[in-house]
Write a sequence for this structure.
């Protein structure tokens, strides 16, 4: 049975490390979803994509952009920003992008068809957890979701934790102390 292993990261570097470890463990890109507000991805990621493409093409490999690159760079190759209700301009890749109604390959088409909470619950993430993850992304976090069966799910959990995934319960406690009570898809950002 396939399950979702979810991690929220407070930096691009930690999320990238997690994705790289997942890939090294044999978890395919098709099993990994990523969601982040557009502004949290460093602008130099685009330069890194170009360099990866140039290396692949100059070596005669003819690889597609992202094929030679690992981590977030590879996952986000060709992904455009899209307006997601409650988050604003964001990027999404993988099954989460599909659940949002974003076109094949994650290419931005203007606006997501549905809200982020509906997309996450469609992936069997409990609604309360989905709300916390969505709020974490709204606040600048990067969400990584791995769809895997056993034993890959255990490997995925270790990779996300080892890379520094935030404790969602601690995050909820912290932001509730500051007055947050729920995530609203329709809320302006």
């Amino acid at each position: 049975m396939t399950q979702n292993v979810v991690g929220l990261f407070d930096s691009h570097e930690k999320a990238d490390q997690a994705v790289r470890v997942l890939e090294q463990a044999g978890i395919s890109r098709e099993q990994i979803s990523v969601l982040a507000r557009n502004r949290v991805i460093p602008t130099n990621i685009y330069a890194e994509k170009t360099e990866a493409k140039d290396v692949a093409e100059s070596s005669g490999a003819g690889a597609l952009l992202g094929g030679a690159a690992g981590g977030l760079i590879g996952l986000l190759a060709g992904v455009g920003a899209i307006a997601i209700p409650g988050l604003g301009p964001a990027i999404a890749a993988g099954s989460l992008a599909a659940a949002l109604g974003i076109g094949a390959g994650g290419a931005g088409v203007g606006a997501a068809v549905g809200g982020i909470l509906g997309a996450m619950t469609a992936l069997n993430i409990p609604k309360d957890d989905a709300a916390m993850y969505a709020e974490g992304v709204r606040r600048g976090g990067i969400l990584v979701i791995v769809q895997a069966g056993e034993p890959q799910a255990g490997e995925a959990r270790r990779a996300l934790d080892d890379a520094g995934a935030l404790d969602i319960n601690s995050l909820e406690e912290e932001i509730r102390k500051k007055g947050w009570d729920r995530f609203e898809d329709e809320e302006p950002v």
